[in-house]
Amino acid sequence: MGQGQLSFDGVSCRRGGRMLFEHLSFSLGPGDAAIVSGPNGIGKSSLLRLAAGLLPCAGGAIQRAGRIALADESLALDRQLPLAEALRFWAVIDGGSVDEALIAVSLDHLAQVPVRMLSTGQRKRATLARVVASHAEIWLLDEPGNGLDTASLEALSRAIAAHRARGGIVLAASHQPLGIEGAQEIRLEAAR
What we know:
By secondary structure, the chain is α/β, with parallel strands linked by helices. It is 31% helix and 27% strand. Helix 3 (98-104) crosses helix 4 (120-134) and helix 4 (120-134) packs parallel to helix 5.
């Protein structure tokens, strides 16, 4: 895995004509993690989209080095294909391993099940498998624990720890504890 880097320097975010947050600064390097918290509507998902380069900053600058994988509410998998085949699309693009990704999120036994047949929790784990299969240096995870049972949360925690041990970076937005040891906390407050 390459050397990833993600830095926000005085970043502000405006959505729908409203300033969500201002002057946010933090830096993440290889093996680092941060958890973004705050009330609904404060800009946690927008922060992740800024980090991914999908939204422009209203102020400040973002520096990125390394490939980025975003897991948000979008499944981004062909619902008609068996799960392994749908993941293979992304693994081929990114050079990852489908089998490894399915095992990491405990979905290997469902590899041949069409994506449309997966439960809510299984779809969430499939989205996380897509991120694992990407071999991206930077993982951006939007509410990754939503819809997961206890065993799946533990699998998520192990996948995050393994990614960080390989020098990966994790930036997660969450309302619930994710068991990410030593993670920075980024608490968003309403812009003044």
